[in-house]
Structures are given as structure tokens and as C-alpha cells.
Write a structure and sequence with these properties.
The protein is an alpha/beta fold. It has helices spanning about 5-20, 55-60, 75-85, 105-125, 145-160, 175-185, 205-210, 240-255, 295-305; strands at about 25-30, 35-40, 40-45, 45-50, 65, 85-90, 130-135, 165-170, 190-195, 215-220, 265-270, 315-320, 325, 330-340, 345-355, 375-380, 385, 395-400, 410-415. It folds into two domains: about 20-305, Glycosidases (TIM Barrel), CATH 3.20.20; about 315-415, Sandwich (Immunoglobulin-like), CATH 2.60.40.10. Helix content is about 25%, strand content about 25%.
Length: about 425
Amino acid sequence: MEIPCGNRIAVACALILIRVAFCSEVKIERTDDGYRMLRDGKPFFVKGAGGEEHLDVLARIGGNSIRTWSTEHLGYELEVAQKNNLTVCAGIWLAPERQGFNYADAAKVAEQLERVKRDVNKYKNHPALLIWAVGNEIEGDGSHDSVWRSIDDAARRIHELDPNHPTMAVLAEINPQKIKALATLCPNIDILGINCYGGAHNVAHRVKEFGWTKPFIVTEYGPLGFWEAGRAKWGAPLEETSSQKADRYLLNYQRSIAPGGQCLGSYAFVWSHKQERTATWFGMFLKSGESLGSIDALSYAFTGHFPPNRAPKILELACEAHNKEVEPGAAFNAQLTAYDDDGDKLTAKWEVFEESRDLKLGGDKESEPTAHPEALVESSGMRASFKAPLTPGPYRIFATVFDGNGHAATANAVFMVKKK
């Protein structure tokens, strides 16, 4: 039945009034040992992850928030988060200079600021909104004052339009120069957001050492970044197993996040599947949906308990060609050592891909590398035999272990096919 136009307008206005009435109020207050966040008057410590998928799983393991990077799908993300009793750190996308944006172009900067204002007005009253994250890693080396001023201009406008939610600037790691610039040029930023990986274990110490006096949130953390990992002779980064990554998530959480103080919480990266250098480097889920051990680690971090059924663990991937140069067509073998705490029967999947060539910066989208199924000669359980591709170049073997209950573990090995 169609609602008459006048009634539709009345219903829409009523819904808006209801939404405004239930708009959350988020404040930050000082404590004896640092800061705390209050959401509608109650203490709120962020136990979050970056992404919009599998939110029922995040809620089930004790999570309470998700982080997004832009407002492109924010309406949907706010709604699905609310349905799962989660909050949203809403990313306000500011264009990075690496993508050609010029912060010396006053007209372009003003146009971007108008978009920020429109987005804030559109979503500021949603009850799931927690924080506005102003930009993501747009500071570069931190030397361009015009970038910092644009961050602050956006934060100032956000405060004018929405006094109920704090602002946060998200930086790619920290150093004294970045902290000084943020503190000096961005007085309208309430929270420092830090994307850090190898340095996550001591980030709380470094925040104080570099002179930041306001609160901070670890906005990304997880495994060693591919820029921090060891490398093969030809430069390919050496990736940890998913089991090693899980240990790193938990250790970094316990050392730098859980103690609180200046820290208001964290967002683990990344609560989905993502191709970035490899298909398994940062994702906490496989593309097919299975969860990895990092999710078990977050469950323990958030609740003090592991889930009833846990992901399998890979102790070692032993590959005869790992980190070596081999002749085209050369034969070699690989073997996994894996186990499952729950006694689940394990199966293994073996794949060979070219090393990724579509290498981007700052998490920009990358395409998947070319698969070489012909390189897998035979597999039986935790063992496999291979024949090196005939085309020279770098390759990577991926081994995935499944427990049959929606969980998995991953490992990979690199090799180089010599030129003829």
C-alpha cells in the first residue's frame, strides 16, 4: 500500500527525530593514569577490527567496534554494525598526495572540505557512530604543512557540525617530527591514530617519548609488514605463518593496548581477505571465508578466553626450494608440520603463484598474481611435489591447512626460477 506523500514526509521526519534522539554522545576525559572514552556516559574501551565483513564473528569474540576508511558505504556499514551491537570509527577519506592530489591547490582542497561537511551532516546522528577518523596515512614524510592544516581544517569543521563525536588523525607509524607537527598544526584533533606493525610492541612507550600528551588508538596492527620482514636474495619479502602472526597479534595487544593509560583501544588489521603483496599477508580470513588463528588471538585478547573450536596451527613449511634459485622444470618437494588443538582432521591445499608485480603503496588495491597450477605435480596430505615453471622469475608456494570447521592456517615459501 502506498503511503500518501504528506504522510511519507511525516514518517521520514519522525525517523530523523528518533535517530537524533538516540544519537550517541562520545566524550574523552582525563584519568589519573591517562584518558578514557565515555559513550553515553559509560566507559568504552575500543576492541575493534578494520573491515565490514563477518561482523557476527567480531561480536561473538567480544569485539565492539569496526573501522572504515571512507564514507563510500558508510550508511550500510553503520546499519550492519548496529545490528551486531558494534560501533563504527568512520573514516573520512582525504586524498593522499601519492595519488596526485595537490594540497597547494586551494580550489581542490576547498572542494574536498565541502565533501567532508556533507558526509558529516549525513551520518553524524547515527547511533552506531563512535569516532571520525580524518584521513589515513596522508601525511607522507610529515614535511608538508599544507597537509596537516587540511587535516585540522576538516577536524574543525567536524567539531562545528558534530560536537558529539571526537576526531582522530591516522598516521603511518610515528616519529618525533610527525608528533610535533600534529600537536602544533592540528589542535582540533582529539585522538592520535597509529598504524603500526613491527613497532606495535612498544608503541605506547614511543607515544610518550615523542611528546604526545593526548590519547591514542592503535588503528592498525597485526603481522610484521612486508616492508619490515626478512627478504629473499632477490628481494621477495618472507611472510610469517598465520600461526606466528596470531602470536604477534596477542603479544602486541597485551603489551601496548590492554594496559590502557593514554591508549583508548585498537583496531586489528584486517577483518577480511586482502591481496597486499600476497593473498594472505594481512587478511584474518581466507577469500573462501575460513578464519585464521589471529581471530582466536583477538578472542583471548578481548575476553580472556579462546573460542570453543580453534584454528589449526602450522609449525613449519619445509620446502627444498625455499629461498633458492632453481633451474626451469626442476623437481622439488615440500612438507607441512601442522596440528589442531581440538583434534580435528586436517586437510591441505597447495598452490603456486608468480610473485606479485602489481605493488602499490599505502594499502592501495592490488591485483592477484598469476597462478601456475601446472607446477603442482602431486599432493598427498601434508606433502607435495612440484616442478618449477619454465618461465624465469620469482614464485611463491602457498600451503593452506583446513580443519573442516571453518578454520584454517597458512604458510608460504618463495623460490626463483633461473634464466636459461
